[in-house]
Design brief:
binds flavin mononucleotide, alpha+beta, 6 strands, NADH Oxidase, single chain, 4-stranded antiparallel sheet, two-stranded antiparallel sheet
Amino acid sequence: MTRTASPSILSHIVNRWSPYAFDGSAVPQEDLDVIFEAAGLAASAFNYQPWRFAYTHKGDANFEAFLSALVPFNQNWAKDAGVLVYVVSDEFMRSDKGNNPNHSHSFDAGAAWANAALQALSMGYRTHGMSGVDFAKAAELLNVPEGFRVEMAFVIGKQGDVSQLSEMLQKREVISDRKPVSEIAFAGPFA
Ligand SMILES: Cc1cc2nc3c(=O)[nH]c(=O)nc-3n(C[C@H](O)[C@H](O)[C@H](O)COP(=O)(O)O)c2cc1C
């Protein structure tokens, strides 16, 4: 499945999409480290780098617990990915002089997730983001410190075969459309 887009758009941006079918294979730690390094190269306000990534490999001691904080719909397919990651952000810029609210903590963490998704794709992996999360449960399970926010979860893994999915998910294993540029970008203020 491929997307059509303007030919000058970077190929990884065009070819990234979010499958449901993952093949259950492991993601080597050295690959995961590269993906997180790429995530950390995102820009952020004052270069504060408010993102944190709490992860678990399929089969390790934390995997089932981390999986249990996803909504059941997401657990159903995310269980087959090699790695499950929670993106957490620091709501404050902390210094010796005190803690100031960071206006863009979520925004910056989103930029880091986007980098991770593109880097993973370039290494032959797929990613799928999730806000279908029991956020209170996730915060407790992850022992998230005060003043940090669980933003979303995502999985990383090798794409599986569509035939392994339920009929309902097979129907959703498609490339999605986008709003036209004219709807999302305009010269000047909102009309
Ligand atoms: C923050 C965020 C939350 C999402 N939550 C879910 C989710 O809970 N379950 C799910 O199946 N997909 C989820 N998605 C995937 C989106 O539905 C998907 O990215 C969107 O439909 C665009 O499709 P594409 O990623 O294949 O281009 C989420 C994506 C993002 C970025």
